[in-house]
Specification:
By secondary structure, this protein is α+β, with helices and mostly antiparallel strands. It contains 13 helices and eleven strands. It binds zinc ion.
Length: 411
């Protein structure tokens, strides 16, 4: 064994110089009764708490960690030797339990101390470990203090790791499903013109969606013609128009992104939310292709037992149009869960999830496609709505409040 020992911690532990007299050391036990063990454990823990509090920098924490946990001669190793191994046969069990509990406690406190020091350093805006660097630089003996030695068996400092936001994660999952079907991804501006958001999508001038009640318009645009006025896009459909202007059929594209509506905040509404829309245009595309595609996507997202059904609906840019419902994933479409009516589907067994339809031939006129030669379908869904179902979230606002306690659950 070298002068310093493999962990470098020996000197501190056995340093009995006068100034460290008061430092805790592991007593050799003669009495292994429950009372004596309990007393020894209590002293051990109180020393642990005191020394944890005293550690104020990363360098001090490392010394603290080595003193208690170093494999060679840490205090844990010492209680293992002098309390457990030295215990007479009939006291082994009790001593073993005691040592195990203390081991868990030391690991917990050493971890918590590291987190506290890290947080303190962060809140002071000071890079962690700077104190150590300064100490080493001024150390005439080459800067190798016991705390600098690396013992790879010891736990490191845990730094918080970020997690993907549930809305982004859900969006990516859905996009990936369509990418596997051969769709590419297109994005477009969040601030759009009236032309792309409404006119080119066949919205009549008096359509309710154009109303100021629903749309957030950019101020000071009155001098421009209506079609050039700017607004926050109310759906990602303008990206479909922009894509068709750039590409000739066949087109298969999904458009994920952020959209805005002038909605008051409540548990199910938010002025910001996300959509994924899709578009397929080619020769001979039929409603059956639309049904098959969406049925596959819903099964891929929610599980193969999920059923879909299509209800007639209306959208200005599709004809015919349909709302798509999936069988309730909470009650397996029965409408009843645990003997009570299912709240998630209002006991109907179905949940409405998307809108879709065959692209209205009028729309092709805006992008120079020949409506007599091509056909296609489009669909759109709200990402938050899917995330709410998938993760059992009960309030859409949780997605936008940035509360780490909520987001941590998805880490
Ligand atoms: Zn249900």
């Amino acid at each position: 064994m070298s002068e310093r020992g493999p962990s470098g911690a020996d000197e501190i532990i056995f340093d009995m110089s006068p100034k460290k007299k008061s430092e805790y050391s592991v007593p050799k036990l003669k009495d292994f009764s429950a009372v004596a063990l309990e007393k020894a454990a209590k002293d051990f823990l109180s020393a642990l708490a005191t020394e944890s509090k005293a550690a104020g920098s990363e360098a001090e924490w490392k010394i603290f960690r080595d003193r208690w946990m170093a494999r060679a001669n840490g205090l844990l190793t010492q209680i293992n030797e002098s309390w457990l191994k030295a215990a007479p046969k009939d006291a082994k069990r009790a001593a073993g339990q005691c040592v195990n509990e203390l081991k868990a406690k030391v690991e917990e406190i050493v971890g918590a101390t590291s987190e506290r020091i890290l947080n303190q350093a962060h809140s002071k805006g000071r890079p962690v470990g700077r104190a150590k660097t300064r100490d080493s630089a001024s150390d005439p003996h080459g800067g190798e203090s016991p705390g600098d030695r690396i013992d790879i068996t010891l736990p490191g400092i845990r730094r918080p790791i970020g997690a993907e936001h549930p809305v982004i994660r859900t969006s990516r999952e859905m996009v990936a499903i369509f990418q596997r079907l051969g769709y590419s991804v297109a994005e477009g501006p969040v601030v759009e013109t009236d032309y792309y958001n409404f006119e080119s999508l066949n919205f009549p001038p008096n359509h309710p969606a154009r109303d100021t009640q629903d749309t957030l318009f950019i101020a000071g645009q009155e001098s421009k013609p209506l079609r050039d006025r700017l607004l926050l896009r109310t759906h990602t459909s303008p990206v479909q128009i922009r894509t068709m202007q750039k590409m000739k059929p066949p087109v298969r594209v999904v458009c994920p992104g952020k959209v805005h509506r002038n909605d008051a905040l409540d548990a199910t509404h938010s002025p910001i939310f996300h959509q994924i829309e899709g578009l397929a245009v080619d020769t001979n595309i039929t409603f059956s292709d639309l049904k098959g595609t969406l049925d596959h996507a819903m099964k891929a997202m929610f599980g193969s037992s999920v059923k879909t059904r299509f209800y007639p609906s209306f959208f200005p840019f599709t004809e015919p149009s349909a709302d798509v419902q999936i069988s309730c994933i909470f009650c397996d479409g029965k409408g009843v869960r645990d003997g009570a009516p299912c709240r998630n589907c209002k006991a109907s067994g179905w949940i409405e999830l998307l809108g879709c339809g065959m692209v209205d031939p009028n729309v092709y006129g805006f992008v120079d496609y020949d409506a007599s030669k091509v056909s296609g379908f489009a669909f759109g869904m709200g990402v938050e709505r899917i995330a709410i179902l998938k993760y059992g979230v009960d309030d859409i606002q949780l997605f936008f409040q940035g509360d780490v306690r909520f987001l941590e659950q998805f880490g």
